[in-house]
Design a protein that fits this description.
The structure is a homotetramer of 377-residue chains. With 377 residues, chain A is an alpha/beta fold. Helix content of chain A is 48%, strand content 12%. Chain A is built from 15 helices and eleven strands. At the C-D interface, helix 5, strand 4, helix 6, helix 9 and strand 8 of C face helix 5, strand 4, helix 6, helix 9 and strand 8 of D.
């Protein structure tokens, strides 16, 4: 048995695949939910979630604050159907760039390509799933062929794109999104990657090799001798440049993990590495179930981030962590925010401004180095 | 205040820095601890930890099993002084390759370079820390100058190394380790990166831009116009090649996060992307505080991994998760393992075999593709 | 300082007490929230919460099932304003009896007596709170005088009630509720204890000494030489009798803790101690953040309960745990349930049927003992 | 199937019962473990556990501090074999009184009566366990007959003890322990209840009806028409009296739950209810996996307790929470403490001083009331 892969052919009619298809739920600003959040969510994590909704709606989105807002995604959000929330936020200009695990983007492609993930149970027999070629993400179930066909699409895209040099993930995801829009018209309604390309929202991945997308790019290098690769340096510098350009900066962090750190390290990069004075975040919202007491960065508080210069010392009242599964809290958050008076902003379309912003970062970094050398002399 | 970085000069004599220096504790195989684990750790997570100790000592390390063992590191382990455990395992041939967050490797450099991190408290005033230029990692405290000087070392190394092309993180960390050994003789006793270079243990990072190491490489590209970069494709393929070459495969996962997935995706890469039949892991040990019910990969069980072909269906008895802070459980685990009859193995020194193993992967991948094309024709 | 109590007089105008008053939010069956739960909560804990809503609305409340439903309360729910949800469920006949920590009932009295608890922050200086005589429950703040005046009410009630013998907590809480209704007309809108008395819902406490209510009863014995006391035997037997009488049995467990076990032990009491054959629960819903892997009863699964005979082996599909802070999940659950077609049932008014049901238990227990003795002879 | 109890006769030879018997491990003060705790446990929860060991050994046990030390037990500790640690602490005079869940005491009786609990797995089929009459506590397995025979012993004890009136749990457990010592000579080596009787350590239960012990007492009342019952008032007052009499007070809290609150409420009872000025705890150690952010009392911090007068404001440095499964951390803690220079103290034998201490409480309470009435006049 070990020398066989799951997803053997001819196993398509599994009894495991009887749950409802998972759809991208689109929040629409329910007044009832706004009332619940304002009046019913008064204390404990309900209170924190209510605060998060208010900080985002009333402060981060206030036109005069001009906040550049990053959204980070960790945990299996697109498999759970939360892509619709992200699509809605991008379309309304409420997030300006995204840092995601590769897995969330890879699984988003299933929706774009019209494959079906289904509601299931976390209490199923995995050995039997393996025998029947069913893949499980906690309680989300789908045939292994979905992986194989998504991979085939990705490899074809890599070939036909002609990309052949080190590239940032924002550029890569943008071109992938354009390809989806071309080949699957209308898929921007059910694909974060496609919608991001349309809305000009750059999507970054902090661990570019660490997903089926990365696996297929590695295949492309090994088997097709391509010179296409992700250049993490470009990602670091583009994100720094975006943060540097922000009048104010704020984030919504779902989960934690590597995307959280990748976002938060932008400010230390500026002062610690580039020598450019720029304060930390003005706003910080996290929805997570990780705990500060385990000591990891996923659970680290805005307060700890102050010592690193990641968060401005004076703004702790504008930071909040709501401890909850994102699958529950994030749709509530989006309903609230979308129904708020600031529920739509002009889009910044940063994906088209990356070169310009990196050039500015480069100028300031070189100037800082000159100045430092002068001081030494 | 926002337009200033922490770590302002002249703040060195902080009253926060009065705790004991953190040292790399070296486990030495205490019989008392072995007795406690065998006789006192009987149920609940103590029972799981006891099982993990036994699976590792008696099965994974058994000479006739010839298990290729990966260790993944997430969470702030080197800041907490756990580097000594990792050094001991590498020196004794008990782990064959490592996947770590960049942060653990970056903070390891402080020890190599003789900077001092100190025991502190998580309940300190971060605004005051910021004012005094003290950095906090949960309850570990040190001056911001430690960051700046470690960064300076890294940038100097990048310049003098002359590296100027896409590189795997294993190669990069190996060269960094060699440089440390040259310039800080004896530092292999207190540096994971240095010891790994000496012991031939390749170290990978799944999120290469996501740490101060990545930040300084990005600086090197932007300001020095270097063409040096991390090529994630090389990492993906090297790890696949190592796993493919293993007679048996097993892992010790500390924490979870991106390193966990980067390790576990090797088998799906083989069957799903490369079409090479190779079973999943034979052994799976995780020490974590993350929970399965939040649905993320960090907390996903060996059972869930079966459906993905990451773990061999028949071996679930040889998989175990002990729910504990690694700072408590990992030293106990190492004491037990080192004191066991299999507490030393010949080292595989895989860092020097990467090219050979990738060549084999490449041959098998091309052969698999040929076969598939033939079938279609 | 140690020899002074918090709540010193003259500290009433604290700057800590500026947050909004906490009110008992009343769910009203929002169709928007039902839509979110049905269509947006598809996987992970959102999926579990959606299942819980459906099991409760469609099965437990189905008229032909005639399910006797227990609700258990642990964690600070009334301080967080969740009493309104409990009131609504009782009024609509959707829960038949309650097991609560004493703290939830004690703090409910503040609302009944028109004292004000306020929204605050968990990040305040507790030494300063102590100095100013402010009490903190996580992020809920109120003056220590609220404790002192609630205690005074309780002690006066104990005196004027004339109760002077061992009593069940259901009887005690019923009489307390009647007293509140007499003295604070209309308070059934903002007191769980008062509403329960009106709606005939018995309220039990598994740890009768363990709250300020228990403290004041102990005072009454020590200082007034009263013979009034809680008799835990009566509680155990009343709950067993209620469960025995149920056509079907089901529970909604908030948090876990001692109330969870007190509910679940009813079935083992019946078979293990009384020798009366009666199956376990037919339905089991828990909202908690406690985890199975820590091994405690709070986090124990319905599956583990099967081995104890607490849950019927065949019904695991009708059991669900949603991992979430109750402050978020319970209001959503109540909105859903109340808006469902089964959102109102005839009330069982069990508080008035306790004697009759215990008499039946007594008969069956004696009969079972006779039968057992006969078998031995 | 629902109308049958687990534990059907003739199922004794289960294949589930093949694991090693669980024994009460006795810590003996290992110097290796002391070295690990001092030198290897430097940060994060290892650091906290190290602090807890030092606070207990060097401060709480210091002869000149004369600290009255309470130990609270929640979570399934005796089933996991941790009773040996508690026995050792009692024998050495290192804890003066205990507050435990009933379940820990009930399962302790199995050891006293020579029944065998076995190591197992949490991943077994509970429906099959039910069929075979095996009871599961997470990963601890034993036949249902163990419950039935322990219950029979308890009911016989209740009959032969002749107890027939309201009693404190300390008195009840003391008499139960004496009975065990009489009938099972030598059982003080493997029974907490028996050892406590021998060592004069009073054991309280905050939720007296909530365990199989409480269930059998309830049976005794219902079926035998006994007037024996637990009087929670006596428990509240005895604990208050013990705390009032302490030169200094400190606690070791395992888990949390109702026993934690029952311990901590003693000080509020004194100032809030009895009007007796007495400061809060001088020392506070908790080992738990519960989290502050869920808002419950189990996870509440020493800091929050300050606002209630449960902890002296000035002593926060002498309070610590180590987040860990008690099955791992508590044996380490005991090894450390027992090997310390203060690893043995004269026993206070408080079980014999309860009447005297309650009389003192009564005097002071009446005096405080007189004084208050005078002030009013």
């Amino acid at each position: 048995m070990p020398h066989r892969a799951p997803g053997a052919p001819g196993q398509s009619g599994s009894s495991f695949l009887t749950g409802k298809p998972i759809r991208y739920y689109r929040p629409n600003g329910s007044p009832d939910i706004r009332r619940l959040v304002d009046e019913g969510f008064q204390a404990f994590n309900a209170g924190r979630l209510s605060e998060a909704c208010q900080i985002f709606s009333e402060k981060m989105l206030a036109p005069d604050r001009d906040t550049t807002i990053g959204l980070t995604l960790a945990g299996a959000l697109t498999p759970a159907g939360l892509g619709g929330c992200v699509i809605e936020l991008m379309d309304r200009g409420l997030v300006d760039f995204i840092i995601s695990t590769g897995a969330n983007l890879y699984h988003d492609l299933h929706y774009a390509l019209n494959f079906t993930l289904r509601r299931g149970s976390p209490f199923v027999d995995d050995v039997q799933l393996y025998e029947e070629g069913i893949i499980r993400i906690y309680d989300v179930l789908f045939p292994a062929t979905v992986l194989l066909e998504t991979d085939a699409y990705l490899r074809d895209f890599l070939v036909r794109s002609g990309m052949n040099e080190p590239t940032s993930t924002a550029e890569f995801h943008y071109r992938l999104g354009r390809d989806l829009l071309d080949r699957q018209p209308g898929c921007e309604e059910h694909s974060v990657v496609a919608r991001a390309a349309l809305a000009g929202v750059p999507i970054y991945t902090s661990s570019p090799g660490d997903s089926s997308i990365g696996m297929n790019i590695a295949y492309h290098e090994l088997v097709n001798s391509s010179r296409f690769m992700i250049d993490p340096n470009k990602d670091v510098n583009e994100i720094c440049a975006i943060v540097l350009a922000g009048t104010r900066n704020g984030c919504v962090i779902l989960g934690g993990g590597s995307p959280k750190n990748f976002y938060l390290q932008a400010q230390p990069t500026l002062w610690e590495v580039y020598g450019i004075p720029k304060g930390g975040n003005d706003y910080f919202i996290q929805i997570t179930t990780d705990q500060v007491v385990w000591g990891g960065l996923s659970g680290a508080t805005p307060s700890e981030a102050v010592s690193w210069g990641k968060v401005i010392p004076g703004v702790l009242p504008d930071t909040v962590i709501a401890y909850s599964d994102s699958t529950i809290a994030f749709p509530l958050f989006c309903e609230y925010v979308i129904g708020s008076p600031n529920g739509r902003r002009p889009r910044k379309e940063l994906v088209h401004r990356r070169a310009e912003l990196v050039a500015r970062l480069s100028r300031e970094a070189r100037a800082a180095r000159e100045k430092k050398l002068e001081v030494k002399t």
